[in-house]
Design brief:
The chain folds into two domains: 100 residues, no CATH class; 297 residues, P-loop containing nucleotide triphosphate hydrolases (Rossmann fold), CATH 3.40.50. It is an alpha/beta fold. The chain is 37% helix and 16% strand.
């Protein structure tokens, strides 16, 4: 009995047996539909069609309920390369560089399509597999630290289904009238410009610089649930050109950047492995992605699923040098043993999935590989200390008058030092690392 996870291995085994047929056929696309059933797309040459007949019976047999009858298994296209244009696809097999997979998914975003780094100001994403790891608080503190040094930083609350960052930085009286959700909905009817001018507020915590806050919603959420059900919609222009929701999100970022001229954009992503998180992590050209982690197995099981997907779809090389593990809420007691455990799990995962393998006795050269204790490595966790006083604040702006550099340094100093590669002009003390 086959399951979904058996499909690609079974296809690879069958193609190994029929290598000669594949060499004649040329490019082959494995198309998995929304139900996980497979059809194969091949070019329409007469010789290629003849070879597909030899494969049909064998593949239909091994695919079982995940495939079709032999005479229905193959479809033919004039040019399979044109078919792949603009679709999320990847090459799953090391031995077959002419075989591609196209996955038809219910969502518009797909974790294996990694956008190149944005050409504008740095975009820094705060992401976690699970909630409750201090991610939003760290986003706010990073903005505060940047503003303390005179930076003009923009913060986006993109945890749309569980917004909280904006309320941490802004009292209700300073909230703008609109937010990200409002723009995404209005943009569908070419009305985004109406809300754009009143969806940014300056936090009172700004000090020497400015913290520009873009909330998930405005001071009056209105019909938020109804709006939330529409933000993921693609946009169809009058010329029938289709724009995915993550492309629309990119356009919003460009408009905000053009209008407000921030020096850095901080993005608080939704936790988990869904389309919102995927848009933040892979689709908007992030310069740096902070991956928040706890010591528990739930964190590392989730990251393993994600890293294995990047590895399997050959997109790991496009994103791995932008990742940085952050150890959130490090306990006051047994700190060293806690950090040791996080470091060990992080290093094991990066070594197995993202780092290049270096044979024993071979100089690493330009390979992407780091020693376990290398403090500049992406697997080496940046620590954020647990602080009961900070955790007890209902909103960060309420206690901001009590903040000072020494307190922030003691709790967040190691983490804030991770911003240095993004902005080398930052003066972050690493003495408490």
């Amino acid at each position: 009995m086959n399951t979904f996870d058996d499909v690609l291995p079974k296809i690879e085994e069958t193609l190994q047996i029929h290598k000669e047929s594949l060499s004649v056929m040329g490019e082959l696309i494995i198309n998995r539909d929304l139900n996980g059933r497979v059809r194969l797309l091949a070019n329409t040459s007469a010789e290629g069609k003849l070879e597909t007949q030899k494969l049909s019976t064998a593949l239909s047999l091994v695919l079982g309920s995940h495939g079709f009858l032999p005479d229905q298994l193959f479809l033919f296209e004039n040019n399979t390369e044109d078919l792949r244009e603009g679709l999320p696809c990847y090459q799953p097999f090391d031995d077959f560089d002419s075989v591609w997979v196209i996955d038809r998914l219910t969502t518009e975003t797909e974790w294996s399509n990694v956008a190149p780094v944005s050409g504008g100001v740095p975009r820094v994403v705060f992401y976690s597999i699970k909630g409750g790891v201090g991610r939003s608080t760290a986003s706010a503190v990073a903005a505060w630290s940047l503003a303390q040094q005179g930076r003009r930083v923009m913060v986006l609350d993109l945890d749309l289904e569980s917004p909280g960052l904006s309320s941490a930085l802004l009292p209700e009286t300073r909230r703008p009238s609109f937010g990200i959700t409002d723009w995404l909905v209005e943009d569908l009817v070419d009305n985004g410009h109406v809300v754009l001018a009143d969806m940014v507020a300056i936090s009172e915590m700004s000090h020497d610089g400015e913290i520009l806050v873009v909330p998930a919603h405005g001071k009056d959420p209105g019909e938020y649930i109804s709006k939330l059900g529409r933000v993921w919609m693609p946009k169809l222009a009058l010329n029938h050109q289709r724009e995915t929701w993550s492309q629309r999100l990119n356009r919003l970022l460009e408009k905000l950047e053009e209008q407000w001229k921030p020096e850095m954009i901080l993005i608080d992503s939704r936790a988990g492995i869904d389309e919102v998180a995927s848009a933040c992590v892979t689709d908007i050209g992030a310069t740096m992605i902070f991956l928040f982690a706890l010591e528990g197995d739930q964190t590392w099981t989730g990251y393993r699923v994600l890293f294995e997907h990047w590895n399997r779809t050959r997109s790991a090389q496009e994103i791995r040098d932008r990742l940085q593990i952050v150890a959130g809420m490090v306990p006051i007691q047994n700190t060293a043993s806690y950090m040791e455990a996080v470091t060990e799990k992080s290093w094991n995962l990066f070594t197995e999935q993202l780092y290049d393998a270096i044979p024993e006795g071979v100089v690493s050269g330009d390979a992407f590989n780091f020693d376990r204790l290398d403090k500049n490595a992406p697997h080496h966790p940046l620590a954020i200390r647990w602080n009961s006083g900070l955790a007890g604040l209902s909103s960060l702006h309420e206690g901001s008058s009590l903040w000072d550099k020494n307190m922030i340094q003691a709790i967040f100093g190691n983490f804030l030092a991770g911003l240095n590669p993004i902005d080398p002009l930052l003066e972050v003390d690493t003495a408490n690392e």
